[in-house]
Amino acid sequence: MKRLRHFLTVTDVSDSQLRQLLQEAAKAKRQRRYRPLALSGKVVALVFQKPSMRTRVAFEVAVLQLGGSVIYLGQDDIQLGQREPIKDVARVLSRYVDAIVARTFSHEDVETFAAHSRVPVINGLSDLWHPCQALADLLTLQEYFGRLRGLRVAYVGDGNNVLHSLLDGCAMLGVHVSVATPPRYRPDARIWAAASRRAKPHGARLAWCADPRQAVRGADVLYTDVWVSMGQERQRATRLKLFRPYQVNQALLRLAKPGCRVMHCLPAHRGEEITQDVLEGPRSLVIDQAENRLHAQKALLAFLLGWRLEAGGSRQ
Ligand code: CP
Ligand code: NVA
Question: What domains can be seen in the chain, in order of their start residue?
Answer without folding.
Answer: 10-130+292-305 (3.40.50.1370), 133-290 (3.40.50.1370)
